[in-house]
Design brief:
The complex is a heterodimer of chains A (about 325) and B (about 250).
Chain A lengths: L1 E5 L8 H11 L3 E7 L4 H5 L6 E7 L7 H15 L3 E5 L2 H14 L2 E6 L10 E6 L4 E7 L4 E5 L14 E4 L9 E8 L11 E5 L10 H10 L2 E4 L1 H5 L20 E5 L5 H7 L4 E6 L12 E4 L2 H19 L1
Helix pairs in contact in A: 3-4, 5-8
Chain B lengths: L1 E5 L2 E3 L7 E2 L4 E2 L6 E3 L1 H18 L2 E8 L4 H10 L3 E6 L5 H12 L6 E5 L10 H9 L3 E11 L2 E8 L2 E8 L2 E5 L11 H7 L4 E4 L8 E7 L8 E2 L5 H10 L5
Parallel strand pairs in B: 1-6, 1-8, 6-7, 7-13, 8-12, 9-12
Antiparallel strand pairs in B: 2-5, 3-4, 9-10, 10-11
Helix pairs in contact in B: 2-5, 3-4
Chain lengths: ~325, ~250
């Protein structure tokens, strides 16, 4: 069984890329397709997770959905692949549906597990904003699977990956990129394993230092609730929740957030939730694994010190 | 400017999620349906703003049954000129996208707008599929849209930042937060919506490529373990040894 896995690799192999390659290797023999000028050495690391062949399109340098669709479909034709696997990230949301329409292939949007194949081909995916799980069956010969980041632990599956330059005709690009406003080089929220978040309980943007300090010692990404983004205390890309970013980290620490249902919809995929709130009746405690009824201004610095002490004891 | 906005009905965000018939069907008991917020607040309202400023028309399109009509009338009350409903159960994303693409292909829309996802299926699939079926660009996760003649300038969320892009019409977009503000329909809009055209048309053939076998609810949290605010060493210890996340 031949599998095409699409990944984006810049300076290093992201966890989302490892997950996609590992997922593909559980379905069959993996050919990775990617683009850009990333070094051969970095690309070959994908072999650690099960890539047997790597097709790299050096002439393409930007994430254009039409060009990427043509690139991935050309790789499917070259390898006669039955499956396409990619990450359900911003790029994947643009490209996944296009590929499946072009191949007339059933599409799993946001797989959270490997397929169950005892009776057909069934994959679990989150629905109702994480409040339920659907078991979706694909009926087509070709299948496209977009994986929700942080859904499975990629395991080593050592292969000696063979690298090949790949330059199919990508057609004309419909979208011209004028500018990219970067949000820095940190781990993007949808892929973050540790997230520290705060809400209106912090009382003002000038108080975010205690949130950032904790995030720093944990190596976590910072986030915020909707009101905080709406009043401009924090940038919009940090807003997690129903209308913001959906995250599924291993650990989500929320301080001064009451836990409205719309907030929970974006964070209920977190494996462990720690809630810090002065109000013992805050609804968020019902969704929490660990709760601290207390003042974030005292608890956060204390937690930062405790993490520092712990980290020192581990070295 | 001729705009088409894809509208879908979803359970209100505060609905209790349960399933019936051996977990194969959503339990509609007591559920209030609304227009999918991404379709309404962002896609529809921005489309209306553009047409109000520059002239043109906004048509909504829905793949659904007569039970969708109240939410379609809501979209008309907010200000859409007319509505189309493809009379079929929206069971599979390819099926839905195919119906919309087939309808749109001879209508020369400048922009087809969808929400970035529905809050029930969260698939983010329809816009991209329509774009591929019509062979047009697709601007996913758009947070800003301006149109000058046949050139649109958009901002969209991409990995690690925001991209400013230029696209020549026609194209398809999916709308995310930021594109517009919610509009509450006024009484005049609600009255006018009753007589605005809602054209019901028959679906075209398209084999469903996927189906939902069953639903399940995620494991409930076993309850919150409380830690004294003075005792953060204990929390760190629990996160390390019990939860194993640090």
């Amino acid at each position: 069984m031949s599998v095409v896995v699409f990944v984006e690799v810049k300076n290093k192999v992201s966890k989302a890329a490892m997950e996609a390659v590992y997922y593909g290797s559980q379905l069959g023999s993996v050919t990775v397709v990617t683009y850009g000028d990333t070094s051969e050495e970095i690309l070959k690391e994908l072999g650690n997770y099960g890539a047997e062949n790597i097709l790299v399109c050096r002439s393409l340098n930007e994430s254009n959905d039409q060009a990427l669709t043509n690139l991935i479909v050309a790789a499917v034709e070259k390898t006669n692949a039955e499956f396409v696997v990619l990450a359900q990230d911003q790029t994947g949301k643009g490209v996944g549906p296009r590929i499946s329409a072009k191949l007339n292939a059933g599409h799993i949007s946001g797989a959270i597990d490997l397929p169950e194949t005892s009776n057909g081909f069934v994959v679990k995916t989150n629905v109702y904003s994480g409040k339920a799980i659907a078991h979706v069956a694909l009926h087509s010969a070709k299948k496209v699977i977009s994986i929700l980041p942080n859904s499975l632990a990629p395991q080593l599956n050592q292969k000696d990956a063979n690298l090949e330059e790949f330059s199919p005709d990508l057609g004309t690009f419909g979208i011209k990129v004028k500018e990219l406003k970067s949000q820095g080089d940190g781990v993007p929220l949808p892929e973050a394993e540790l997230v520290v978040s705060a809400g209106r309980g912090l009382k003002g943007p000038e108080n975010w230092g205690i949130v950032e300090d904790l995030a720093d010692v944990l190596g976590a990404t910072t986030a915020c609730s909707r009101p905080v983004a709406d009043i401009g205390w924090r940038p919009h890309h940090e807003h997690v929740g129903q209308t913001g970013v959906a995250i599924r980290p291993n650990l989500y620490i929320a301080a001064g957030i009451s836990g409205a249902i719309q907030h929970l919809a974006g964070v209920n995929g977190s494996k462990v939730i720690v809630v810090i709130n002065t109000d013992p009746e805050a609804p968020f405690f019902k969704a929490a694994d660990y709760g601290i009824v207390g003042d974030a201004f005292e608890v956060l610095p204390r937690l930062t010190e405790a993490v520092k002490k712990f980290s020192a004891s581990q070295n | 400017m001729k705009l088409l906005v894809c509208i879908s009905k979803v359970p209100d965000t505060t609905s209790k999620i349960n399933f019936v018939d051996n977990n194969t069907k959503f339990d509609e008991n007591g559920v209030q349906y609304i227009v999918n917020p991404y379709d309404e607040w962002y896609a529809l309202v921005r489309a209306l703003e553009l047409v109000e400023a520059q002239g043109g028309s906004v048509t909504t399109i829905t793949v659904g049954t007569a039970s969708d009509d109240p939410t379609i009338r809501k979209a008309l009350a907010i200000g859409a000129n007319d509505a189309v409903r493809i009379d079929a159960d929206p069971s599979d994303p390819h099926f839905v996208a195919k119906q919309i693409a087939e309808y749109a292909k001879n209508e020369n829309y400048d922009i087809i707008l969808t929400g970035k996802e529905t809050i029930n299926y969260n698939g983010s699939q329809i816009g991209g599929m329509i774009a591929e079926m019509l062979n047009t660009p697709f601007v996913s996760l758009a947070t800003k849209l301006d149109v000058n003649n046949n050139v649109a300038t958009l901002e969209r969320d991409v990995k690690g930042g925001v991209e400013v892009v230029e696209v020549v019409t026609p194209f398809v977009l999916s709308a995310a937060k930021g594109m517009a503000e919610q509009r509450i329909p006024n009484m005049r809009g609600i009255m006018a919506a009753r007589t605005k055209p809602l054209n019901v048309i028959s679906p075209v053939e398209q084999e469903p490529l996927s189906s939902v076998v069953k639903f399940e609810l995620p494991d409930a949290k076993s309850g919150c373990k409380y830690i004294e605010p003075e005792n953060m060493d204990e929390l760190v210890e629990l996160l390390h040894n019990e939860a194993k996340v640090i």
